[in-house]
Structure formats: C-alpha cells, structure tokens
Amino acid sequence: MAALPDPGLSRAVLLGTASYRHLPQLAAVETNLVDLAGELCDATVWGLPVQHCAVVADPLSAPAMLDPVHRAGDEATDTLLVYYAGHGMRDAESTDLYLALGESRESMGYTAVAYQHLRAALRASRARRKIVILDCCFSGRAARSLGGDDVLAAQAAVDGAYVLTASPRDRVALAPDGERHTAFTGELLSILREGVPDGPELIDLETLYRVLDERLRAKNRPLPQRSQENGVGRLPLARNRARSARSAPAGPVLQADVRAAMVATGLNLARLLRAEGTVKDALPVLRLALEEQTADTSGELLAVQLELSELLAETGQNKEAIEILESAFQRVHKMYGPEAVLVCRRLAELLQESGNHIEACEVLKHALDIAEFDHTASR
User: Fold this and answer.
1) Cβ–Cβ contacts within 10 Å for residue 45, how many?
2) Hey, is 125 helix, strand or coil?
3) How many angstroms separate the CA atoms of 17 and 29, rounded?
4) pLDDT value for 207
5) Per-residue pLDDT averaged across 6-19, rounded?
6) Structural contact between residues 82 and 13, judged by C-beta atoms closer than 8 angstroms
7) What is the pLDDT of residue 354?
8) Which of 86, 131, 237, 298 has the fewest CB within 10 Å, making it most exposed?
9) Cα separation, 6 vs 8, whole angstroms
10) Which residue has the higher pLDDT, 359 or 126?
11) CB neighbours of residue 107 within 10 Å
12) CB of 137 within 8 A of CB of 17?
C-alpha cells in the first residue's frame, strides 16, 4: 500500500514574492506561504517537521531564492517539494520563464530569476521524487504568449518530477479582491484542510490535480496544468481529512503530533469564526491554541501568532499584537531566517503605526542582518 513520503527524509521549500516596486502587488502571497507551511507541517496532513520546511518570503536576489532549494535538495533523499507564488514573467527576447523578485521589471528577464536555474537545482537534488508547484500570475504580453493548455507545464518540466501549475492570466484571476489567498493556492489549502469526500485515504498528486481542476472550473477560474514522469502522480501527499473520522490513523501519533493537531484545529476554527464575522469568538480560540506552546510545537504556532496579531491589530489592540509578534520573533529567528523576516516586517508595520519609528527601523535592520547572515552561511 502506498504511504506518505517520509517526513524525516523529505524537505519543502516555499518561495514567494508579495511586494514589488514595478509590478502589481500580490499581498495574498504572504499568507499563502505561512498557511501552506502550516498545513504541510500539520501532523493530520503530512507531518513535515518545521525545520524541514523552509519559507522564503520576498527574496532580494537569485541566491536568496535558490540557495535554500539547493540546501534542501542536498538534504532530501525521499521527496523534495518546491512551491513558488508570485509574478511569472517572459523575457522580451525569449520564451523562457522567469520568477519575479521585488525589483523585477516586466519583459526584462535579467531582473528576475530564470526558471531554468530552479530546474537545475531540482535536477541536482538527491531526492527520489520531486514536486514543483507554481502559482504564477502573468500579465499583458506574457499571458498572450502562453498559448495552448500545456505550454507552462512543458516549460516547467523537470525529469522525474511532478509539476503542477496555476497559470492565471491576470492579477484579478490570481488574487481575487477580498480573498485571503490567491485563487489557486486557496483551493489547494481547502483540499488539504477539509479533505476530499469519498476520496482515497491518502490524497495522491493526481487526485489533488483532478479536484483542483473541478473546483476551479466550477468557479470559472484559470485551470491548473500538470506534467509528470515515472508515475510520480501516484505519490500520496496528504492524509484525507474527510475520511479521518471513520478510518484508522495513517501512522503512529506522538504527543507532539497531538499538540500540533490541537494547534491546527484551533487555527482553522478561528479562521472559520473570523470568516463568519465573529471576531470576538475567534480571539479566545487563538489564545488557547497559543497556550499549547512546547519545545516540539513552537514552529507550528507561528501561523497562530501571525493570525492572532493580525486580528488584534484589526480590533485596535496594537500593544498586544506587538507583544505577540515580538515573542514570535524571539523564538523563530533561532530556527530559520525567512519566517523571522516575515514577522519583522509585520512587527515593523505595527511599530510604525504606533509611532515607534526608531524601533521599527531597528526591527527592519535586524531582518536585513538575518537575511545577510543566512546568505553568508549558505556559501
């Protein structure tokens, strides 16, 4: 019987650029990264250890984006998953695919990261199986140049890998106004969180693609594409939560798994309450989830802290929101850099809103120091 990839021997790298100087902003990319990391590390979904899931938010250069992929590729022997969300670009002089950085300019591939370099990093990996998920948006000429249904998937193909692409045609289709996530990743997260009714006990990649296609088609949104080799599509990626209540556990459950599941359940419940407009009920749920903090679950709580701080800020409780983010930063930056940078950015925004401009600048400087340290250490 097929089993999930071994979490201890697998790695995931989640890449995304939300802030741009010359291209439209994609604020939803930030929440894509945080929430997808939370699901992949959730014991009821895959159970990937937090330290095996690198989140790279708003990388400033090609090395900042690709070095974590090379590191994960060297470490993974079972499965390597790489996800990218942001603007996809085409160079004016070629049909090559480029992944945009914050300073990228439309039709100027040299200002972005060539996909061929990401593909080379994947090919060099020791992992037996590789999964690539591209949630890229295209605009103007780039959208028209895609042509047929399989162009992007063919461009992105990696030997022996499963490539799943969103290929939206414009910003509205990719990141609908008022929605927390981009259209494609929003549906992906919904499948991981809720499962597939009447689906298999373990959701394989082909099932994931089929359900994504059905749901996006029903909403008249851009349809996903996929490319695969060597039957990788049969690889299970997640436990089917829709069947969890009536089936046996898919593997041994440890105390840390139970705590992680409690945190994930609290987070999902709070989001549901928030969506229904009952913010006052969501706040205590998030605070309870925060109390589950232990040495084993500190990483899983990042999504809770970010959600709680956002909710507190929305309700005018900036002081507590700042305290939550400061606590998150003190823990997370010791584990991995990109998440600390994300926390720093949100913390700096709140400090600036509160009039603490000097502290905000210090927090941002700290984030730059962390990014520079990570880049130097990777050499």
Assistant:
1) 23
2) coil
3) 7
4) 92
5) 92
6) yes
7) 79
8) 298
9) 5
10) 126
11) 15
12) no
Whether the predicted pLDDT of 214 surpasses 90: yes
Calculate what percentage of the chain has a pLDDT beyond 70.
Answer: 72
pLDDT at 335 over 70: no
CA 125 to chain centroid, in Å, comes to: 20
pLDDT tens digit string along 236-281? 899 998 886 454 444 454 555 566 666 666 777 777 777 777 777 7
Tokens linked to 101: 């950085």
- State how beta strands 11-16 and 161-165 pair: unpaired
Say which amino acid occupies 301.
Answer: L
- Average pLDDT of span 308-318: 84
Nearest to 51 by CA among 308, 315, 256: 256
| 187: three-class secondary structure by DSSP | helix
How many CB atoms lie under 10 A from the CB of residue 57?
Answer: 23
The first and second tokens of residue 217, run together, are: 């088609």
Burial class (CB in 10 A: 0-12, 13-18, 19+), 255: exposed
Identify the band that residue 340 occupies on the pLDDT scale cut at 50, 70 and 90.
low
> Which structure tokens are listed for 131?
């999964």
Which whole-number Å values give the CA distances from 122 to 39, 82, 97, in the listed order? 23, 9, 16
Selection from 27-31, 66-70, 324-328 with the highest mean pLDDT: 66-70
What are phi and psi for residue 101, nearest 5 degrees?
Answer: -105, 175
pTM attached to this predicted model: 0.64
> Count of residues for the chain?
379
Query: Using CA atoms, how far apart are residues 189 and 15, in angstroms rounded to an integer?
Result: 16
Per the structure block, which two tokens stand in for 209?
Answer: 């693609």
The answer to whether the beta carbons of residues 279 and 314 sit under 8 Å apart is yes
Residues 116 and 32: beta-carbon distance below 8 Å: no
* Token output for 176: 């609908």
Percent composition of the chain: helix, strand, coil (DSSP 3-state, to 5) = 50, 15, 35
pLDDT of residue 169: 43
Residue in the block written with tokens 């697998």: 10
